Amino acid sequence: MAGRQLTLKNCRYVLVDKANMLENVDVLIEGDTIVEVGKGLGGGDELDCRNCVVMPGLANAHTHAAMWIFRGLFDREELPQWLSAVERAEEKLTPEIVELASKAAIMEMLSSGTTLFVDMYLYPEATAKASSELGIRAAMGPVINDKVVEEGRAEKLVTDLLGAAPPNVTTIINVHTTYTASEEALKTAAKLSQKMGLNLQLHVSETRQEVYKIKKEKGVFPVEYINKLGALTSRTLLVHMGWVTSWELSLIKEAEATVVHCPASNMKLATGGFLPLVEMLNSGINAALGTDGAASNNSLDMFREMKTAVLLHRNSYWRTDIGAPEVFEMATLGGYRALGLKGGRVAKGYLADLALLDAASPRLRPLRRSNVLSNLVYSACGCDVQATIVGGHIAYIRNEEFKEKISEIAEQLEQIDF
Amino acid sequence: MYKGYPVCALYSGGKDSTYALHWAFLKGFNVKCLVTLKPRTAESWMFHYPAVDVTELQAKALGLPQVFEHTEGRRGSELEDLKRALRKAAEKYGIKGVVTGALLSDYQRMNINFIAEELGLKVYSPLWRKDQAAYLRELVEEGFEFILTSITVWGLPPTLLGKVVTMEDVEKIIELADRYGFNPAFEGGEAETLVVYAPLFKSRIKVEGRRVRLGEYEWRFEVTRAWLEGS
Questions:
Q1: A242 and A184 co-located in one domain
Q2: Among partner residues A212, A246, A247, which is closest to B114 by beta-carbon distance?
């Protein structure tokens, strides 16, 4: 069905994907889809992009948006202590606070080129509302835990959100992790995911303590455990995975599940693992990138995350196998692919989810065809984004009005004391 | 003055544990002692068997105390032996972490980590998933001198037993590893090594021994005499 048209005119560079670059071309969008990329295109509203680098929008494949409110509060704790501190602070949260904090996070993400985020948090309906209002693409869902399962509310929670979800929001099923959810809760989540065809997101093998506990109690490693319970499928998003073993990688590959890597959060929380990213990518496992929440990263800037991922793996492997192309693909295509969305490339038929960067920014200079991707990953930051387009709509334009709006929200949230 | 985070090095006397120990020193860790498991059987799942006694000389050459623990080398029970040894090191030397030379075996890495988890110790495995051929070359380039003390894989010539591995030998090993399909750093136990000199050794270890054939392509270098040079 034809929709409203938008043309990005004379784009200085279009980074189609990790391997393809176009110069001085136009991008024609119709409705929520890119219909043509080439020269001499026009139609609908026109955006002058002669000073822009156009790239696929970034997919933040794992975050807890509303945790924006806790940024900078718990910086010294290791994960178990950090979790306890966060849980105490969360007692003050209401759906209204979650909605407002989600708005702040979403505005920050949009302003740094993120067009899609996958969320896991309390009151997903509040975050869904904020996402819809601000025009970002998002995936979120209720957290299935023991209480919800005991009370027989799991399916209703999912269907309620599914029924109320605005068009840009994909409903998914969340489970916190293997050691905080019972076998029953995991099985229920797996069944719902299968029955309703929804993605299932869970933190797995994040810490040594978790792997130890599961191995001791269940006799198997975490990925083996969730596989046994039917929760490892092509719809599963396995987040963190720093303590995954080589034999578990084979299961992930076989199931065609996605691994979401959150390098900054893992390092900041000193989880001490080693995600075998080179082996994962070589075996063809779909990998995506996430910032995790602002309480543990503390940034939501996917440009920083891409660079951090490269640095971590070069330092860990003492090799340069992981570079800009690998992390760029994880941060774009990888995230969209995880949700079964045709996005993450600037090409015909793909979702018009795009980030437009200021080609005049000193961080992008010297700018040559040969170093565009390198500059984006190693030098640029979210603040170089001039505009963000989601589903053909301009969701962010860098201006004073946007700055004031985010400032107003921040001021309200800063009144809450933790 | 801060002396660095107190750790022990899980030490077999082979190239990997010696390299990991050096890494720990270079990183500023306070290496308080070596921990060595002495298998009673050659079939140990986790720990080197050949020439493990020479580790006493290595400890002297490094000027580090050593915690010894005997192990039956049986799967399962040797983990208890390792736990005992690490507990001893923690009690005696106040260590908070363990440095290991684990290369690629998740079985080895995770078992050590599970024990460390129970004891509240951190584990550092600097060689984990490093490029094996590059690592082998670096070892020799950086002045680590080691001999092969056993061979259990088709393709490695017994002439390598008992002699200090040169860069020429390294290239040969890498080529053979590629041709016969084994790990060039012997991660799967294709061969065992013994370090006779390393940058932090105060003196060189001299070794005499003989080659013993155990099977079609299984060989061992039996150390008959070992001593510190100059002693």
A1: yes
A2: A212
